[in-house]
Write a sequence for this structure.
């Protein structure tokens, strides 16, 4: 598939402070890239640079094959951006505002109305389309922000924390919308909410202190989990004892009775094997390397565990 | 693209009470001035007939009205320009414009053009007053035209300076006060040289008022018009550069 975004050695410094340090990544059509990181990791700076709000200190950005720095107008035409704070003119009505956004993106008059209608429809704004944005609740304002980003159906959509302030049902609706959009567009989703990334993204990237410390396909990450198990037995176990059984690899003791181990066997075969050994199996569960675990390891752990996980 | 931004700017001015209040206040004050000078004209009309080459209605009513207008609007324009860019920054709506396929030059020009629409509306309301005299007397239309042109250039210059000041801060109040300070300073920068009657000094050239007075007298001089165009151009370029710099630094 064609590359929608390619970022090369992007760096941004604020004086001596380096907010984004030499990062590179790519986004293809059909990808939903989850961009994660703790506060101050450089997420928003990266998004601002991608959207042309901030000039990078060094590096290249190309959007849909067009260099953002050399030809900003053409590059920005293929971009829809929802910043952290939705950029709303609160004295306008929803329809007026969206029409203005459409004109900014040079939509023709005929295309403008249908684009507005479909964005209003997709974001569930039909009931409030003639109300002033000022008078809408935070959730609706957020949805107007999303509508603005998808209005001109750009190939690349960048959403910075799109579900902030929405109620649980709206969150599900927006996630569905993002998934649907993800089939035809390339989406970058910036968020703190880890389950959201797990629910919608096809790829995940974690940025910490300005550097990308983790990057993986969601499927890879999930399949990696399934070969690791958490096992609790009735009798005392030790690494030496378990090491004699070649079904276990990379054994880690949790306490005297529990350990985690990887295995080439599938879950049913492995459990059968343990039962045959008559160790008194009391608990057998696939080990959850949830995204949360990865995230915490990567952003709080020291460099060593960092590299282990990245490997 | 410039027009899209200008249109939104113009409309949003009228969506807040500010524009209406400004139009109303300016109109009331100037109508009072206009009425007073008409009244004065009637009392001295008889004496004027005795004088050779006496000043006409245009000189005694229209020109003073334009002069008062320029001073009233010196105080009012900062209120119009203060929110042009600073409010976009404060409400974080700037990122909508910056991430759209629009250049910073287009954003600044669009905003300035929106402001000019408003200035034209304001000017139209003011010009109606002296024009209404045409029903009862003969007017020197050339002189009125020159006065209106002068007032338009003065207001455009005020607007350009205000636009630049607004790009410097994200607080509209600070933008208003500094615009007012700058305009007042430029208005009366020639106070001491004027006393010396030295037309060639730099300070005399810098003063907005000196150039406006010539136009009010009906003297269309390229020197004055060039002054205003340079003034406007200069501040618009400064505003564009300011926003470019902020994108690099912020």
């Amino acid at each position: 598939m064609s590359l929608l975004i390619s970022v090369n050695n992007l760096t941004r410094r604020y004086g001596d402070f380096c907010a984004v340090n030499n990062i590179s990544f790519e986004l293809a059509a059909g990808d939903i890239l989850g961009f994660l990181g703790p506060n101050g990791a450089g997420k928003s700076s990266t998004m601002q640079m991608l959207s042309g709000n901030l000039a990078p200190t060094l590096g290249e950005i190309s959007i849909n094959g067009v260099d953002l720095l050399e030809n900003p107008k053409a590059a920005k035409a293929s971009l829809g951006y929802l910043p952290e704070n939705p950029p709303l003119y609160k004295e306008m009505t929803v329809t007026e505002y969206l029409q203005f956004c459409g004109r900014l993106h040079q939509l023709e008059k005929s295309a403008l109305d249908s684009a507005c209608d479909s964005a209003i429809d997709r974001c569930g704004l039909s009931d409030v389309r003639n109300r002033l944005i000022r008078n809408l609740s935070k959730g609706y304002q957020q949805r107007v922000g999303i509508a603005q980003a998808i209005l001109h159906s750009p190939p690349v959509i960048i959403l910075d924390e799109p579900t902030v302030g929405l109620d649980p049902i709206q969150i599900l609706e927006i996630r569905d919308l993002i998934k649907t959009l993800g089939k035809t567009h390339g989406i970058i989703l910036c968020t703190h909410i880890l389950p959201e990334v797990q629910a919608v993204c096809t790829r995940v990237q974690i940025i910490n202190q300005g550097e990308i410390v983790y990057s993986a396909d969601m499927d890879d990450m999930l399949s990696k989990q399934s070969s690791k198990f958490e096992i609790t037995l009735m009798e005392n176990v030790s690494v030496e004892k378990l090491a004699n059984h070649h079904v276990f690899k990379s054994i880690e003791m949790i306490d005297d009775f529990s350990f985690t181990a990887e295995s080439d066997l599938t879950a049913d075969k492995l459990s059968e094997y343990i039962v045959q050994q008559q160790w008194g199996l009391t608990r057998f569960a696939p080990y959850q390397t949830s995204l949360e675990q990865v995230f915490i390891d990567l952003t709080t752990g020291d460099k060593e565990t960092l590299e282990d996980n990245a490997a | 693209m410039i027009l899209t931004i200008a249109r939104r700017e113009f409309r949003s001015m009228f969506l807040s009470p500010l524009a209406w209040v400004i139009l109303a206040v300016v109109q009331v004050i100037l109508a009072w001035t206009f009425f007073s000078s008409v009244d004065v004209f009637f009392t001295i009309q008889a004496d004027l007939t005795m004088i050779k080459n006496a000043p006409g209605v245009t000189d005694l009513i229209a020109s003073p009205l334009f002069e008062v207008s320029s001073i009233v609007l010196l105080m009012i324009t900062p209120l119009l320009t203060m929110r042009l860019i600073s409010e976009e920054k404060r409400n974080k709506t700037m990122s909508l414009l910056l991430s759209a396929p629009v250049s910073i030059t287009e954003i600044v020009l669009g905003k300035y053009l929106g402001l000019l629409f408003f200035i034209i509306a304001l000017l139209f309301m003011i010009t109606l007053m002296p024009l209404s005299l045409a029903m009862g007397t003969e007017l020197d239309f050339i002189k009125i035209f020159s006065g209106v042109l002068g007032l338009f250039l003065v207001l455009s210059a005020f607007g350009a300076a205000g636009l630049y000041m607004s790009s410097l801060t994200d607080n509209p109040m600070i933008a208003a006060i500094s615009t007012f300070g700058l305009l007042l300073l430029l208005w009366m920068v020639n106070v001491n040289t004027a006393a010396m009657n030295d037309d060639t000094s730099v300070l005399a050239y810098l003063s907005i008022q000196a150039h406006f007075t010539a136009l009010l007298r009906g003297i269309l001089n390229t020197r004055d018009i060039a002054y205003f165009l340079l003034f406007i151009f200069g501040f618009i370029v400064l505003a564009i550069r300011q926003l470019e710099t902020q994108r690099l630094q912020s």
Residues 3-217 of chain A form a domain with the Rossmann fold fold (CATH 3.40.50.300).
